[in-house]
Amino acid sequence: MSGQETNNGLVQLTSKHSFESTYEIIKNTLDANPNIGILAEVDHTKNAKRVDLELPKTKLILFGNPKLGTPLMQSSRTVAIDLPQKILIWEADGKVFLAYNDPKYLLNRHGITDKDPIAEKIAGALATISGEAAE
After folding, report:
1. What does the pLDDT average to over 122-132?
2. pTM score, two decimals?
3. Cα–Cα distances in angstroms (integers) from residue 33 to residues 11, 44, 46, 132, in the given order
4. Cβ proximity of 68 and 121 under 8 Å
């Protein structure tokens, strides 16, 4: 992985690929995992254009695995505001970046103290998914 940072609960990476390639790599990696479902894709750039505003390439993919997310919600319903998981892809200054919420940060944010193994599993999956695109 290239340029990984964790800040305010966000894990941020720099991709070595173009915006389009990065997005497709992430989408294809998610599609290839039978345990994960893509729930929505948001094209913020397209939405900005719709109201005559400009925004550099920015997309968000929402996805989840109910077998992992549901137990977190059973511990604290407020974690549902941060679920399903999301990966943000954007382009700035000729570089492409990815960001996602650190699952361990989310446990802390929502006072979940009994689900560390689930957070570790989610963190590993997010690192794999984003790592594919950042390599």
Report:
1. 93
2. 0.91
3. 21, 25, 28, 13
4. yes
